[in-house]
Amino acid sequence: TVASAHREFFDSEEAIADAKAEIFTGLPPDGIAVLNRDNRHFERLAAQARNAGVGHILTFGIDGAADVRAQDIVLHETLSCVAADVAGTRLFFKVGIPGRHWVMNALGALAVVHALDGDLSLAALALAELRPLAGRGARARIATKRGHATVIDESYNANPESMRAALAVLGAAQTRGSGRRIAVLGDMMELGADATRAHGDLASAVIAAKADLVIATGPLMRALAERLIAAGMRCLMAADADGAYEALMPRLRDGDVILVKGSNASGMQRLVDRLKLPPRARPRSDD
């Protein structure tokens, strides 16, 4: 897929698509290009594939014209249920990682299995066994003063599209008792001249996720904080991951669900590591 990741090194998102399309030159004439039909750069990528001599383009997505398409998606807190048409074969399957973006990944995987003439039924069963990885959505139960909370660890990396996807997962998360949805968001790096706008534009996704508290971490996240505060949302600002830890710890409650996400360079993994420590081993908060 194509999104505004590493935008700093390209003149436009279209240039990112062109760079990714270079892979088509390595395909033989009987090769198959598997493309996301829902991506706004699909036509550009398809044209580049044809120009490179690719003989067959297989598409996936929700778009009705996709060869492998989802016909019904039910999103749950920790998984998704999908009904799909895989080039004429009807499949019902589960994806063991939550979020619409993982459904799209699953459709892409099934398209590859179909292209290789693999066993679609076995592939569909395997998708149910998927589990989130550390830094990529893994969940951890952490101790609070009077109970426990849940951390959703998305600390490995971030761009505008993946931020929105992770916030949607937070929005679907179920809190317990007086628990809240908390988003601790670190800077998204390598966005170039679009950085300030891209951070501020996350406000709609945060609001849609019904986050009760946001800790905007890093200088770029100030643009988001200003938008959220103007919208009447509760938002704190922290200079870095250490500051986010200081802001979060005294405010944790039993039943909270905390999303932690940011580019790798923002150091949000350090925050996750601290939260997962036994209470006596955690650094003391100065608050």
Q: How does this structure look, described?
A:
This protein is 32% helix and 24% strand. Helix 3 packs antiparallel against helix 4 and helix 9 runs parallel beside helix 10 (268-275). The protein folds into two domains: 7-127, UDP-N-acetylmuramoyl-L-alanine:D-glutamate ligase, CATH 3.40.1190; 138-281, Mur ligase, C-terminal domain (Protein-Tyrosine Phosphatase, Chain A, Alpha-Beta Complex), CATH 3.90.190. It is of the alpha/beta class and 287 residues long. The protein is globular. The strands form two sheets. Strands 6-7-11-8-9-10 form a six-stranded mixed sheet, with helices on both faces. A five-stranded mixed sheet has the order 1-2-3-4-5. A hairpin with a 2-residue loop joins strand 4 (80-86) and strand 5.
Topology:
Elements: H1 13-21, E1 32-36, H2 42-51, E2 56-61, E3 68-75, E4 80-86, E5 89-95, H3 100-115, H4 120-127, E6 138-144, E7 147-154, H5 160-172, E8 181-186, H6 195-200, H7 203-208, E9 213-217, H8 222-230, E10 235-238, H9 241-248, E11 257-261, H10 268-275
Parallel strand pairs: 1-2, 2-3, 7-11, 8-9, 8-11, 9-10
Antiparallel strand pairs: 3-4, 4-5, 6-7
